[in-house]
Q: What sequence folds into this?
């Protein structure tokens, strides 16, 4: 399916890619393109550039969805037929909201929210951002207020982390682990450490030795409270997973045309295929393009001819030709590596190329320029 | 701190947004240090494809691999680090294995947050503690450890984990060990954090945040910011003047349009492209000077495909010159 059709028909686009390839800019441009065509679009991002938020007419993107004001479009000479909304994900708030939703009463809720171990899980630690991103996506999708949601995934070195993190978290909170943890803790509080299961007993003793009893008690207490919530949590995680493989969802992979980024991209593609997740499009970003169809040797010959005719301008012509030949060389290199990537793929891929722009993209007009290439 | 003092630190963290060239510059800094006679190890926290591209070959995970007489590289792997740590703690290797192979422990470890970061910092600490020689000849095995920090989340979040653990661990052996890690991270004599950035909006924002976080939140010493990928001016001053001259000479431009099949426009377009990039870089460098609390070291843009060992050596030279004034 062409990207223009994805923007018309899908209800969720998940934008993935390794760090530094321009995911946030591409996400915003995709959202803008769909809004221009009349859809009500929300773009969810993790870490937007401040100037990107500025350019969207927002002081900063908050955890609440905000509509991009008409004035901002008007200033860039744009009149979208639809609506563009933006928001920034806040991992901790999303977690807290989830606990509030699945907790049966206030006592349980507060016991989870105030547990030191819970607070650590939800903040700086690996995987929590990815998990909360999918959780928020699910919540937004359920509300059914937007025609399209574009999710800019968290910055990771490996694009795959986004797929793995939610599973990691659910298996972490799995009931069996909970039972293992809570069991000895309960016995310990009454009888001292006595274990029937010798393997668990040994493991628990080692853990206690290195982490200290209080820590284990905090962890056990967290699991004890969470045990009742697990089913709700797991059910929700399963639904999130379902949403990811829904036909109305598509993954968009952003990559630069450079080898390390392409290598990551191919791992990611294999994985998507393996997981039967719907891949929509590959976007090659920051691709060198040549301003001419001429080859490097032709430029050299034409340069020589030009100098013969205009000997007084030799310095300028030589410098300009050398510069143009460099541009051609770079464009050819990118073309080759993209072609190689597409040929190596185990199945045909839809792709678009966004050229390496002259300057950093950081305003509505810039985003709109990118849109043009996306829609091609 | 003088810039040169960076070469006297035991542990140098390199952090920054994903895609800014952390691995390349970590390698370049390590190379510069070994050229100055230091015995150096480059520790890569996350296995990245970049190192493989630089070296032109795969290196084994969790194995110190010597790539020059005074330079080794090492890719960390949390499970291997945990195994090593457990063996050190439990002393009986078989018992450590039994512990880690316990069905629930391995299950728990797959998912548990935090320990990966903790053992990672632990491994760095342990490497910095190792010595060679005896008696008077006893000295650290590595003079300098360059750490290529992960790009995940905020690149420094893994360094926050020891503090988080120090908070939640009330007793136990790990509590005092965690304190050692914190002492190491916060000791300005031993440790410095350098930031890697690009002259672009988002990498610069992240660099500002990282520098601030390292200093204020974690109490670490911040060294320099490496501004990587600075597009140079495409023309020398006399070339630039000549081009301007040509641009304003209408007769000459008409002649060019006749010679070139699709007009001479491509020549000027290509020039404008590169001039615009160079100008944008200059603007961000000015902004960086205002916003960053650190000295800035500029490094030129390397064209794609040129980041191999030769490219690293070129960068190492530039880094040496910038930090030590042409030594």
A:
């Amino acid at each position: 399916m062409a990207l223009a059709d994805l923007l018309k028909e899908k209800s969720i686009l998940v934008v993935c890619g390794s760090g530094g390839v321009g995911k946030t800019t591409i996400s915003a441009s995709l959202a803008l393109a769909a809004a221009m065509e009349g859809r009500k679009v929300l773009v969810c991002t993790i870490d937007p550039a401040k100037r990107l938020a500025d350019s969207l007419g927002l002081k900063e993107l908050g955890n609440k969805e905000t509509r991009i004001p008409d004035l901002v479009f008007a200033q860039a000479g744009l009149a979208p037929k639809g609506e563009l909304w933006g928001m920034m994900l806040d991992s901790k708030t999303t977690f807290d909201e989830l606990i509030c939703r699945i907790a049966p009463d206030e006592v349980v809720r507060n016991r989870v929210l105030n547990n030191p171990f819970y607070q650590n899980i939800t903040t700086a630690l690996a995987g929590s951002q990815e998990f909360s991103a999918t959780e928020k996506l699910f919540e937004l999708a359920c509300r059914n207020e937007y025609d399209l949601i574009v999710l800019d995934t968290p910055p990771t070195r490996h694009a795959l982390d986004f797929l793995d993190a939610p599973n990691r978290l659910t298996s972490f909170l799995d009931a069996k682990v909970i039972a293992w943890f809570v069991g000895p803790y309960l016995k310990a509080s009454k009888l001292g450490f006595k274990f029937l299961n010798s393997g668990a007993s040994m493991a628990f003793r080692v853990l206690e030795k290195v982490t200290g009893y209080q820590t284990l008690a905090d962890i056990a207490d967290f699991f004890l409270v969470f045990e009742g919530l697990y089913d709700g949590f797991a059910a929700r995680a399963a639904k999130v997973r379902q949403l990811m493989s829904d036909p109305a969802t598509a993954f968009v992979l952003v990559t630069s045309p450079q080898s390390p980024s392409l290598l990551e991209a191919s791992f990611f593609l294999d994985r998507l295929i393996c997981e039967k997740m719907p891949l929509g499009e590959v976007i090659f970003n920051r691709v060198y393009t040549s301003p001419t169809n001429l080859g490097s040797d032709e430029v050299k010959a034409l340069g020589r001819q030009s100098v013969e005719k205009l000997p007084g301008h030799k310095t300028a012509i030589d410098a300009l030709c050398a510069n143009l030949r460099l541009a051609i060389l770079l464009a050819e290199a990118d073309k080759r590596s993209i072609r190689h990537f597409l040929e190596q793929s185990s199945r045909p891929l839809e792709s678009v190329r966004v050229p390496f722009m002259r300057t950093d993209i950081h305003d509505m007009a810039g985003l709109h320029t990118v849109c043009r290439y996306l829609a091609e | 701190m003088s810039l040169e003092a960076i070469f006297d630190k035991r542990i140098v963290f390199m952090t920054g947004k994903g895609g800014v060239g952390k691995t390349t510059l970590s390698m370049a800094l390590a190379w510069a240090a070994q050229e100055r006679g230091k015995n150096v190890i480059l520790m890569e926290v996350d296995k990245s494809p970049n190192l493989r591209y630089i070296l032109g070959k795969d290196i084994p995970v969790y194995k110190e691999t010597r790539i020059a007489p005074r330079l080794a590289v090492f890719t960390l792997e949390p499970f291997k680090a945990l195994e090593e740590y457990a063996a050190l703690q439990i002393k009986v290797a078989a018992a450590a294995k039994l512990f880690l192979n316990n069905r629930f422990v391995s299950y728990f470890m797959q998912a548990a947050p935090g320990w990966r970061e903790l053992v990672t910092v632990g491994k760095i600490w342990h490497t910095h503690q190792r010595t060679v020689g005896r008696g008077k000849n006893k000295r650290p095995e590595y003079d300098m450890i360059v750490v290529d920090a992960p790009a995940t989340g905020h690149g420094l979040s893994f360094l926050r984990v020891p503090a988080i653990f120090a908070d939640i661990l009330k007793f136990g052996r790990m509590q005092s060990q965690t304190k050692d890690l914190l002492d190491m991270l916060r000791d300005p004599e031993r440790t410095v954090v350098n930031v890697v950035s690009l002259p672009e909006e988002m990498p610069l924002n992240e660099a500002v945040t990282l520098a601030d976080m390292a200093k204020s939140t974690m109490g670490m010493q911040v060294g320099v910011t490496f501004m990587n990928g600075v597009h140079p001016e495409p023309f020398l001053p006399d070339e630039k003047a000549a081009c301007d001259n040509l641009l304003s000479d209408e007769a000459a431009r008409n002649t060019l349009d006749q010679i070139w099949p699709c007009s001479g426009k491509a020549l000027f377009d290509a020039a404008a492209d590169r001039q615009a990039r160079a100008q944008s870089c200059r603007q961000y460098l000015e902004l960086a000077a205002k916003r960053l609390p650190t000295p800035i070291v500029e490094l030129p843009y390397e064209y794609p495909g040129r980041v191999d060992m030769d490219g690293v050596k070129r960068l190492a030279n530039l880094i040496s010159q910038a930090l030590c004034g042409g030594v």
Remarks:
- The two ends of chain A are 13 Å apart (CA to CA).
- Chain A touches chain B through 89 residues (CB under 8 Å).
